[in-house]
Structures are given as C-alpha cells and as structure tokens.
Write a structure and sequence with these properties.
By secondary structure, the protein is α/β, with parallel strands linked by helices. It is built from 13 helices and 11 strands. Strand 8 and strand 9 form a beta hairpin.
C-alpha cells in the first residue's frame, strides 16, 4: 500500500503542517500557567474573536466529538432534541456519544446530499408544548457536510432565521468549516456569526493541526456553564498552550485558508480526473475536499491494495476519497492513472 501523501482515506491521516509544528515547538520552553491561563491561549482567543466577533466565547477541546458534545450540551435540556441529517457525524460516527452524554434525542432527517432545509426540518420539528413529546430545540448542520457538500451563507442564514423564529437554536459541526469557507470564498465569521449561527465546533485537526478543536459560542448567554461542562466532560487540557499554539498558527496569515484551498483544489483535480473513467460515477457535488464515487466492486478491492480509502456504502459500491493540505498533484494524478488501468483492464 502506498503511503506518504498519496492516500485518500481521510484528512485525519495527514501529518502536522510545518507552521503548526513550529508554533508548538516555540512554546515548548519554560513554565506557563496551566488550564488556559497563559498568554498563548489569550492570543489564540483574541484571534478567534477577530474572525468570529468580539463577543464570541472560545473553549478549546481535544477532539471533534468532544467539541460537538460540549457545544450541544450548552444549548439544550435532556427533554429537548437535536435535529440533524441522517448522515451527520453526530449520528453516524460518534458512537452514540451525543445521546449518551446529553441524554437528548437525535431526530434524523433523510437528505439527498447531506443538507437540511427548513422544509425538511419542519416535517420532524413536532410536539412543541406537548409534555408527551421531546421538544424541538437545536438544528445541527455539518459544514462542510459528511458528504462533502457546502451550505451557502444564505442557506445557513435561512436555517438560523427559521430556528430563531421558533425559539430554536442553530449548531454547526465545523470540523471542516475551513474547507467550506474556502470553497465559498468567504470569511469564517461571514459563514457563521453573520449568518446567525449560535454555537459551533471549529476544527483544526483536519486542517493541519495535531489535535485542536474549539467550541465557539456566538450567543454569549449560552457560554455561562461551559467552563464547568468542559471540565466535567474531561476536555480541559492542562498544558493548554500547546493546543492554543496550533490555533495561533492556523489563524495567523490565513494558514487555515491556504491549507483548505489546497485540499479543495486537489479534490477538484481528482473529481475532474475520474469523471471520464469507465464505470466511475460521482455521487455528490464536489464542493470541499471530499469526492464520493460509485466504483465497480472488483476495482475497489484492487485499488485498496495500493491506496487507503474508505468504502462508504458497500451496497452501492460507493467510496469516499479525501484530500488534505499535503495532497500533491502528482499523488492525485497517480491515483487517477491507477484507477484508469484497473477499469480498462490494462493493469
């Protein structure tokens, strides 16, 4: 199996961006206060506020599942629900953590390309005021979605307006928010704060960090108990400066955007290259750094011998190919060439 930048399994497989690594090394000297009471964390929070607004509250966490659970816990009671897409990470890939630790029900919505609409949410936002029904409270969207699609600014704002008109809230799982913003050519705040998002999880790990996630609360009254929720949820880092330094690097000089734009561009290159490969069909619009395709079963098995990637839906022979900040054009082209060989029988 080929490694070293030529795999397409996940942007989590990528290493640490050199600028992020350097930022961590730069704070690895001397003693500084623990648990976030250090100047590196203060600088990171200041950078977040430059992007998301001066009134935003920021809470760093170790991983995306932790950030999602923390953010959602600040938004609802156990008798209230979270409405999300069937394909949402909080439903499919977090081992039931949201439901276990929140005690709240996830209400699932079928989607065509992973995106919710007010109309699709309205069909399941039922029972308001009825003591026999779990109460609709939070709409959670992933940006970009688990299927690689992206909500436009207007689509986010429409969902936020719909939610707020019904005393509901909008949460964003932003594990790949950087890729979405880069795809749309907008700023992080334009896609969240200005669009009416209440709470989001902002991901650094998939965009060049070693392990850095953040809960960003854009509605200050929801942040009151998060320091205690984070500690009780075992997501408070003692040596916080090493998490914070990663965000300082990513949010300085638009490294977050440069990394995301490159990953997105490699996905576009990959999608364009496989479009005319016999037997290969793209399954979803390619709008971020994910390519979903239907590939013949025998080709999948042979291709996996050379390249790591995930089979997304075995029943439909659907695979997912992810690109990252360190994916190279040569790696993409080599992958396409191997796929072409296998589908034409010239291998």
């Amino acid at each position: 199996m080929r490694t070293g930048g030529s795999g397409f399994a996940s942007d989590n497989y990528a290493g640490i961006h050199p600028e992020v690594f350097a930022a961590m090394a730069a704070v690895n000297s001397g003693h500084l206060p623990a648990y976030g009471a250090d100047p590196v964390t203060a600088e990171a929070v200041s950078l977040f506020r430059e992007h998301f607004g001066a009134s935003s509250e920021v809470f760093f966490a170790f991983n995306g599942t932790g950030a999602n659970v923390l953010g959602l816990q600040s938004m609802l009671h156990p008798f209230e629900n979270v409405i999300c897409a069937e394909s949402a990470h909080i439903n499919v890939d977090e081992c039931g953590a949201p439901e276990r630790f929140l005690g709240s029900k996830l209400v699932l919505v079928p989607t065509e390309h992973g995106k919710l609409t007010p109309e699709s949410v309205e069909r399941v936002a039922l029972g308001t005021g009825d003591q026999h029904h779990v109460q609709p409270r939070v709409i959670s969207i992933a940006q970009s979605t688990e299927l690689g699609t992206v909500y436009s600014v207007d689509e986010v704002r429409t969902l936020a307006d719909w939610a707020h008109a019904r005393s509901m809230l909008l949460h964003v799982d932003g594990a790949r928010l950087s890729n979405a913003a880069a795809s749309l050519g907008v700023g992080l705040g334009e896609l969240t704060t200005a669009a009416g998002v209440d709470v989001l999880s902002y991901g650094g790990t998939k965009n060049g960090a070693m392990g850095a996630e953040a809960v960003v609360v854009l509605r200050p009254d929801l942040a009151q108990y998060l320091p205690f929720i984070r500690k009780q949820s075992m997501q408070l880092a003692s040596k916080m400066r090493f998490v914070s330094a990663q965000f300082v690097a990513l949010l300085t000089d638009d490294l977050w955007r440069r990394n995301a734009e490159h990953a997105n561009a490699m996905a576009q290159r990959l999608a364009a290259g496989v479009t005319n490969v016999p037997g290969v069909t793209l399954m979803h619009p390619v709008q971020s750094n994910a390519v979903f395709a239907s590939v013949p079963t025998e080709v999948i098995a042979a291709l996996l011998l050379d390249y790591p990637f995930y089979v997304w839906d075995e029943s439909a022979d659907t695979v997912r190919w992810m690109t990252s900040f360190d994916t190279t054009p040569e790696g993409v082209d080599g992958f396409i060439a191997r796929l072409q060989e296998l589908t034409t029988g010239s291998a």
